[in-house]
Write a structure and sequence with these properties.
6-stranded mixed beta sheet, alpha/beta, single chain, vWFA_dom_sf, two-stranded antiparallel ribbon, VWF_A, 7 helices, Rossmann fold, Ca-activated chloride channel family protein
């Protein structure tokens, strides 16, 4: 595998509840996966929350989007985003390696002897630090997120700073939902902006309104597709699906 040819594209949906306007997010996640964009989900739980059913939708979104889901508390959001990104990169590379192994030797990693499997897994672990990564964080900013929004801002900043330490190229964009003025969602930080750029903008993130998860994921798809490749944007186009 040539790391110059590998770009892993992912959307991370962060929410503390179920969508309630704007269509079915599961179907939109399925559309993303067909476009080779992985959709991961993180469900933020309250410390005293015993029932996970309100967050069941995050499982369905992740499964339709070929991704991973996690439940977490707001204080652990940064670590969870890091973990989900690491798992996504490794899972994607392992699937690609398995496909090549089956074509060449008609075996996958699990069929190999321990010594050979260990070498392959070491290669995957090393290679995962070098592949290009394009991540769009899609964050719920509905009314229920009000007590968590400050911690969520800092968690995103921490993730951006930690991903800058990777050897491979990283691009991060941040979209919140709902947006201002009745829009379903709003771009906070586009691909190619620096941590300092985002830090200046995070103060505008305020929790309010409904939970239009589907339009926000669709907006993220368009944002990712608006790039020819990591770090090279197409001619500016007006993204659809942001309006309520």
């Amino acid at each position: 595998m040539d790391n110059k040819e590998v770009i892993i594209k992912q959307i991370i949906v962060i929410t503390d509840g179920q969508s309630n306007v704007g269509g079915n997010p599961v179907e939109v996640a399925r559309k993303a996966f067909k476009k080779n964009i992985i959709v991961n989900t993180i469900g933020i739980m309250n410390q005293n929350q015993q029932e996970e059913k309100p967050l069941e939708e995050i499982v369905n979104i992740a499964e339709a989007g070929g991704g991973i889901y996690e439940y977490t508390y707001i204080d652990e959001l940064h670590q969870t985003m890091q973990s989900i990104t690491y798992k996504t990169v490794n899972k994607t590379i392992q699937e690609a390696v398995n496909k090549q192994l089956k074509e060449i030797i008609h075996q996958d990693i699990n069929d190999m002897n321990p010594a050979a499997r260990s070498k392959i897994l070491h290669y995957i672990d090393t290679f995962s630090e070098e592949v290009a990564l394009q991540t769009c964080i899609v964050m719920d900013a509905s009314g229920s997120m009000a007590p968590k929004i400050l911690s969520a801002r800092h968690s995103i900043l921490d993730l951006m700073e930690s991903l800058e330490l990777r050897r491979g190229n990283c691009e991060i964009a941040v979209v919140i939902y709902p947006g201002e003025g009745g829009d379903y969602c709003q771009l906070i930080s586009g691909f190619g902006e620096t941590v300092e750029d985002f830090e200046r903008k995070i103060a505008i993130i305020k929790a309010k309104g409904t939970t239009p998860t589907a339009p926000a994921i669709d907006y993220a798809i368009q944002l990712i597709e608006g790039y020819n490749r990591i770090g090279l944007q197409k001619e500016p186009v007006e993204l659809e699906g942001a309006m309520g």
